[in-house]
Amino acid sequence: MSLSFKAFTESFPLAREFRISRGAKTQADVITVLVSDGHYYGWGESVPYARYNESIKSVLAQLEDIKGAFASVCDTEDLLTLLPAGSARNALDAALWDLKAKVKGKSVASLANLYTVQRCYTAQTLSIDTPEGMKNQALEIKNAPLIKIKLDEHQVLERLAAIHEASPQSRLIVDANEGWQVAMLNELLPDMAKLGVALIEQPVPAEADEELAGLNSPVILCADESCHVSADIERLAKYYQAVNIKLDKTGGLTEAIRAYHAAKEHNLQIMIGCMVGSSLAMAPAYGLCADVQFVDLDGPLLVAQDRADGFTFDQGRMIQPEPFLWGLPGQYGQQGLARLWNELPD
């Protein structure tokens, strides 16, 4: 069986400006990949990320460079040597898993020996704003079980206090996106614990991880920008109590499963995270959420208009509807993907 693929870009306007410590964005620019064996079609989505020296242009170039070699690919394992970890490999990996589900007549969860996700609550993300603005964002989501808060180095406790006042029952995740120093973290930790913060993502720059050694934190510290593939886990276990597994970092579900098992082996808590994208980008990661401590797959809630037949959300609960856009057996969506394939240039 010879496989081929086509890649193109799409943009999803966001529901509101999304601001983190490194800057702001108003749309999600994604790479969409279609894979075909000449009869069935699979698709996947990834989000190039500038923090990892990726752009739409560079990822498309990566994909173009391996088109010839891709014809001999038989399974997602083959991609691990064909492409490095990153969003190019993620999009192809997702499309291959989706194709495999169609060809084998089994769900991706079954093919990958993953637990069936019965119930999943995702964090809902607040972007950086004034304390009052972030309080209003928290009020809009009405005591969500889990709230993720983007913060820079300014007004940290003022912002957290405003959010805690608006949503006192919510557990809070703070994401500093490498924006703090260890001295600042040490100073903030006692008050953050009192304000309901359950986990802090990547408080310090990735190259400063070693400075966290021996820190007795009352809040779980989670590696994000430092954690890419399974080989990173053993080192990170010296400094963190949790890792954030994102498929755009691992280069797809195939390597994400390895990272998941490595984290379990090192007694680390696990967060399944995402970049800002549509339900198509979240779908492969969702399969890992049955037995993890934190889920952050609210990308579809951040875009103004999600893809058809994507996830639905009810007060933080993430629900996979039927029909669904990815990873299930059957002919659902095949006509639409075939039509799209024929419209795209070779």
Nutshell version of this structure?
By secondary structure, the chain is of the alpha/beta class. The chain contains 14 helices and 13 strands.
Describe this structure in words.
With 346 residues, the chain is α/β, with parallel strands linked by helices. The protein has 14 helices and 13 strands. Helix 3 runs antiparallel to helix 4. It is globular, with a radius of gyration of 20 Å. It starts with a strand and ends with a helix.
CATH topology of the largest domain: TIM Barrel
What is the CATH C-level name of the largest domain? Alpha Beta
Quaternary status? single chain
Separation of the first and last Cα atoms:
19 Å
User: What is the H-and-E element order?
Assistant: EEEHHHHHEHEHEHEEHEHHEHEHEEH
Name the helicity range: 25-40%
In DSSP terms, counting alpha (H) and pi (I) runs of 4 or more, how many helices? 14
Largest sheet: 8 strands, parallel
Low-confidence segments: none
Query: What percent of residues are in strands?
Result: 15-25%
- The CATH architecture classification of the largest domain is Alpha-Beta Barrel
Task: Give the strand order of the largest sheet, numbering strands 1, 2, ... along the chain.
Answer: 4-5-6-7-8-9-10-11
Shape: globular
Mean residue pLDDT: 96
CATH superfamily of the largest domain: Enolase-like C-terminal domain
- Structural Rg: 20 Å
Helix/strand structural class:
alpha/beta
- Number of extended strands: 13
What is the domain total for the residues? 2
